[in-house]
């Protein structure tokens, strides 16, 4: 019925057979996060409370994504099989089982399954998308009404990412094309890919650069965007072509633990809010016995010249594969990377660096532009080194962090 969806695997909806954690979401302003488990229940953990609410609803099935509303204490949107659930949670409540009456139901005929969500940074609008619906929906949650953003060609939408400055939205499709929408007049530009669909993407903190990957490829592409004013306002302003900034083809590293093969197709990618760390899940080569999935970490700078330098790798316990990654939105000492493993554990890996404490426009020395990095190449010796903590050395496995074991709720 939907030939463009054949063989489609969504990064935000891990296989039921391969992962205990279905979705993860940090709260944008506090030390609180939500975890969706295999049984479609959601647990909310808060560093300031021993109470762990468990969210359940009869419509909360096949949870694919979650997103906390910005500038709000406790509103959580959940992408489900037939609808979007918006939970309104009382942060002072001691209840571990909030009533299903705390959840709004947002639904639209033909808009299912819902697999991707994105709040506007202002919190005023919520986007939802489905791979079988060619329209994205822009919701006014307060009135439970929506506006359809429709286009023809390319199928539905498999992945959404709203830029941190609120100006643009990335919308990936099941076909070899993706679109970037301008979020004021809602015009869009399309970029065709050569080999496959856009697998994942992430924005720089100022919304001026988009990094994305393509299914079946082991490289990271970059698109830069200009800010238009006056008569040109309302245009997307993207560059005409994308440039390759990193090649993650499989290669061999000599480590303290022996020879390891790392590299391959990129599964997902996140950029931390400071713009100084990029984390990438690399699948590894399935036919190579020594090739294992890993999380590659890069040091990045977007201004005045874009640069991307390797930091190291994050590996889990033997047999554990990274499934989901996310950066803490407001970690004060640098960047905090969260990794959800196929074993059901969640690891939090801190990266402490001086750059987070210095003015970003005043680097200690002129940055060295790095148009593309390949794992067989060593980091340039003239590159600025502002990192003073974990994950700052040449490529090597990163140790440390702490893990939170998760169990299926009863």
Structural account:
- The structure is a single chain.
- The protein contains no helices and 31 strands.
- The strands form eight sheets. A five-stranded mixed beta sheet has the order 23-24-25-26-30, with no helix packed on it.
- Strand 1 and strand 2 form a beta hairpin.
**Main beta-sheet strand count, sense and barrel state:** 5 strands, mixed
Name the quaternary structure. single chain
Averaging pLDDT over every residue, what do you get? 81
Count every helix, treating DSSP H or I runs of 4 or more residues as helices. 0
Which structural class do the helices and strands define?
mainly beta
Give the CA-CA distance, first to last residue.
Answer: 37 Å
Number of strands: 31
Strand content: 35-45%
**How helical, in percent, are the residues?**
under 10%
Shape: globular
Can you tell me the residue ranges where pLDDT is under 50 for at least 5 consecutive residues? 1-7, 9-17, 356-410
GO cellular component, one term: nuclear pore
Protein name: Aladin WD repeat nucleoporin
Question: How is this fold's topology laid out?
Answer:
Elements: E1 21-26, E2 32-37, E3 42-46, E4 54-55, E5 65-68, E6 75-79, E7 84-88, E8 103-106, E9 116-119, E10 126-129, E11 135-140, E12 145-150, E13 159-162, E14 168-172, E15 177-182, E16 188-192, E17 198-203, E18 209-214, E19 219-224, E20 243-247, E21 251-255, E22 258-262, E23 266-271, E24 277-282, E25 294-301, E26 307-314, E27 322-327, E28 334-341, E29 345-352, E30 397-398, E31 402-405
Parallel strand pairs: 26-30
Antiparallel strand pairs: 1-2, 2-3, 3-4, 5-6, 6-7, 7-8, 9-10, 10-11, 11-12, 13-14, 14-15, 15-16, 17-18, 18-19, 19-20, 21-22, 23-24, 24-25, 25-26, 27-28, 28-29, 29-31
């Amino acid at each position: 019925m939907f030939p463009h969806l054949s063989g489609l695997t969504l990064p935000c909806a891990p296989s039921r057979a391969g992962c205990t954690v279905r979705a993860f979401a940090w709260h944008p302003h506090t030390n609180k996060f939500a975890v969706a488990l295999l049984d479609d229940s959601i647990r909310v953990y808060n560093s300031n409370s021993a109470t762990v609410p468990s969210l359940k609803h009869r419509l909360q099935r096949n949870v694919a994504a979650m997103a906390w509303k910005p500038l709000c204490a406790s509103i959580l949107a959940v992408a489900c099989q037939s609808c979007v659930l918006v939970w309104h949670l009382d942060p002072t409540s001691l209840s571990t089982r909030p009533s299903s009456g705390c959840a709004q139901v947002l639904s639209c005929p033909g808009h299912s399954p819902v697999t991707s969500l994105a709040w506007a940074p202002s919190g005023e609008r919520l986007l939802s998308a489905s791979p079988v619906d060619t329209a994205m929906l822009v919701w006014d949650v307060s009135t439970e009404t929506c506006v359809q953003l429709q286009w023809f060609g390319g199928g539905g939408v498999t992945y959404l990412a709203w830029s941190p400055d609120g100006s643009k939205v990335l919308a990936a499709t099941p076909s070899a094309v993706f679109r970037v929408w301008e979020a004021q007049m809602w015009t869009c530009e399309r970029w065709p890919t050569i080999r496959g669909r856009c697998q994942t993407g992430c924005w720089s903190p100022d919304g001026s650069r988009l990094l994305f990957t393509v299914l079946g490829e082991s490289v990271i592409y970059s698109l830069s965007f200009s800010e238009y004013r006056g008569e040109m306002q309302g245009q997307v302003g993207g560059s005409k072509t994308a440039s390759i900034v990193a090649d993650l083809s499989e290669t061999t590293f000599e480590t303290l633990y022996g020879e390891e093969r790392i590299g391959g197709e990129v599964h997902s990618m996140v950029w931390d809010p400071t713009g100084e760390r990029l984390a990438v899940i690399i699948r590894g080569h399935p036919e190579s016995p020594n090739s294992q999935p890993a999380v590659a970490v890069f040091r990045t700078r977007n201004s005045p010249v874009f640069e991307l330098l390797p930091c190291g790798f994050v590996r889990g316990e033997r047999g554990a594969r990274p499934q989901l990654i996310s950066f803490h939105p407001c970690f004060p000492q640098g960047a905090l990377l969260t990794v959800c493993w196929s074993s059901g554990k969640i690891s939090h890996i801190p990266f402490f660096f001086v750059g987070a404490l210095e003015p970003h426009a005043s680097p200690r020395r002129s940055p060295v532009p790095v148009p593309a990095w390949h794992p067989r190449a060593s980091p340039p010796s003239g590159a600025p080194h502002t990192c003073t903590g974990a994950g700052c050395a040449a490529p090597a496995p990163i140790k440390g962090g702490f893990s939170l074991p998760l169990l299926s709720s009863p």
